[in-house]
Give the backbone structure.
Amino acid sequence: MQSKPNLSSFGESTVLDGFSPSGDMPALPARVNVFDACNVGVVLRAVLFVEAVVGVGAMFGAGQFVDWLLRFSLLTGGVLPATLAWLIAACMLKGRLARLGTTQQWTAGIAMGALAGVYGCGLLAMMGLLDPAPWWASAAAGALLSSVLVAGLVWRAKARTPAATAARLAELQSRIRPHFLFNTLNSAIALVRAEPAKAESVLEDLSELFRHALADATESVTLGQEIALAQRYMAIEQIRFGDRLQVQWSLDPEADPAKLPPLLLQPLVENAVRHGVEPSAQGAQIKITTQRRGSVVVLKVTNSTPAGVGERGHGLALANVRERLALLHDVQAQFKTVFKDGVFQVRLEIPL
């Protein structure tokens, strides 16, 4: 009997069910890297926010547009390097900061902001653009702006936990659909006497799917682990549909380390079976490809639709995948769907 991929490497949850005890500050999700300033989307939003505040502040005392532009340029010369210094420090120290308590994380973030404000003021003072240098005002402004940035990072971290939980519940409901369980068990029963080894294989795949569905959710898994799980699911559906289901895997081993939210690929291949194979008496072709392109991994799930587009779904599974991918990778990930010439394709781009 063919050996099955080992899925036991799915790690334990890094996002616990509870939250830290609430105090004066908003509670942070347990064991989540709040100061994940290494994310490109976080950097862009932080810089745009600080520059917007600087732009509004430069309006005070500026009678004309030229005066505002000069003030804005002057302040940007100190604020932008200070903001980038805060983001770099938060990125480099995120592991250590994650081990601190809620109040300590807030205190550290605000203190870093005050130091960044002093740093920006020092740059302008060295260039002779500030005389006298407003050290205390710069430290206070840096602390205030950093507190807003920390609040945004806390909100972002907290947003990931309920979204992942809701997505997991949705996947459980989808996975434990009565007709799926009924058809799979019927396939196994039909094979018990004629091909007992194959029946055992189907039951093993089904058991592994449910075991993984009921396991604790993790913040992320590798693409290789998601591929292994999807292969088990497709093995069950192959018994059910036989020659009607034609599956082609084109996998790049270098793409396997890419990080994905758990149970992200399975609903995509399930959609391909449901909307491509089920409605057609002739069946359909499904192709799953992975490819590494530099620092980006491209994942494609393609299925033909011989019976036409069929009954239109609610799009909940695709919306689920899109939202969870954005929560994990922000603007570094892309999610696209296209239907052309009887072929439906889902394309994901994931940073490596």
User: Anything to note?
Assistant: The chain is about 55% helix and 15% strand. Residues 36 and 42 are 8 Å apart (CA to CA). The radius of gyration is 26 Å.
